[in-house]
Amino acid sequence: MDAISTTSPVPVPDAGRGAGPGRPKDLGKRAAILDAAKRLFSTHGFDGVSMDQIATDAGVSKLTVYSHFGDKDSLFGAAVRAKCEEQLPPELFLVGLEGNLREQITAIARAFFALVTSEEAVAMHRMMMVPGTGDAHVRELFWQAGPQRVKEGFAAFLRDEVAQGALDIPDIERAASQFLCLLKGELHMQMMCGLCCTLAGEDVEAHIHATVDLFLRAYGTARRQEAGGA
């Protein structure tokens, strides 16, 4: 469920049947293709899904699928990115967008936890972890399009907060990774093992707030000053 892009894919001239020079892509068809890809890839994995199946599920021609995404690798990466951005829109990582630092980090934490515990994300992670499922290339596509992009987005947010003096973080990349791993925690591991399917809202909120508090105790400049630290 790697970091978030702050820009959307740029439409290019439609190469599908009936498209004229400079004609923009049909965004409705693009969305239908992505929805079908997210659903089918999370259910059947990369190798278990064909471009024909995705086209049929989306209600478009295979030529239209290739026109929008080029090849299966590109569509898989786009589907993973789209799923991440559903839960973690780029706006979440804009510094000072809404609320104070704690509120912003809590909002990011809540969205990230909802993403990694979603049915689609859990199914995809399980498939990525099964030996012999897919190849290293597919796993790298997943990593770069999902986990890595999310971490990079959060790291950029932290970098801006450090620049404004709100946080004191010697190693931003490491801190971003630590925070996201802490958020997954035991609850996510239980879901991955099939030990629980639903999580009580109060348990999730307690876990999120405890993780945010721990992170700010470690890197928040105000907390360090109150504690007499450097």
From TrEMBL:
InterPro entries: Homeodomain-like_sf, HTH-type_TetR-like_transc_reg, HTH_TetR, Tet_transcr_reg_TetR-rel_C_sf, TetR_C_Proteobacteria. Residues 1-25 are annotated as: Disordered. SUPFAM superfamilies: Homeodomain-like, Tetracyclin repressor-like, C-terminal domain. It holds the Pfam family TetR_N. Residues 27-87 form the HTH tetR-type domain. Residues 50-69 bind DNA. Keywords: DNA-binding. The keyword Protein biosynthesis does not apply. It comes from Lysobacter brunescens. This is TetR/AcrR family transcriptional regulator.
